[in-house]
Design a protein that fits this description.
71% of the residues lie in helices and 0% in strands. By secondary structure, it is mainly alpha-helical. It has one domain. The chain contains four helices and no strands. It is elongated, with a radius of gyration of 20 Å.
């Protein structure tokens, strides 16, 4: 079985996202259970859940970009078909690439600044730049997915 590099990235990102969500749910359950039953919540639960949410989000973006499953407003979609619709589709795709590239750069810059400043998580005691570096890599992988997935050609409007 031959697997392409992009398929491997998609598989790994899906597994990372799934594991982050499962770990986030587990930590939340343990935190609430400890708070209710033993009156002793986990002190680091808030930070771990935030990290897991960010990792799940950035890892999940690979699939979102590849399948073009973004949240979108389709109120005017019936008006944009043919050449004009294709132009609008490509224009929005290019704007999306510009904004997402800016996001990748900003996450990377934040990781560098966090390392230089020496920020650490309050309860976990680990340096924040490590987590930001992981998010930077995952967002760059998601950018690759966006770059290789071109917009679909809008079809003729359907009467409903």
């Amino acid at each position: 079985m031959k697997m392409s590099f992009l398929s491997l990235l998609e598989y790994l990102c899906a597994k990372v996202s799934l594991l982050a969500l499962i770990f986030m749910a587990l930590i939340t359950f343990i935190d609430v259970f400890g708070r209710v039953v033993f009156n002793s919540p986990l002190g680091f639960a808030y930070e771990v859940v935030g990290i897991c949410l960010a990792i799940s989000f950035y890892a999940g973006l690979y699939h979102v970009h590849k399948k073009r499953k973004h949240i979108r407003i389709d109120l005017l979609e019936k008006l944009f078909y043919g050449r004009f619709g294709q132009f609008i589709s490509w224009l929005s795709y290019l704007v999306e690439i510009v904004f997402f590239t800016a996001l990748v750069i900003m996450v990377y810059q934040q990781a560098v600044e966090s390392k230089n400043f020496g920020e650490i998580f309050m309860f976990l005691g680990i340096e924040k730049w490590n987590v930001l570096a992981v998010m930077s890599v995952l967002s760059a992988i998601a950018l690759v997915s966006l770059l290789v997935t071109f917009p679909d050609s809008p079809s003729q409007p359907q009467d409903q």
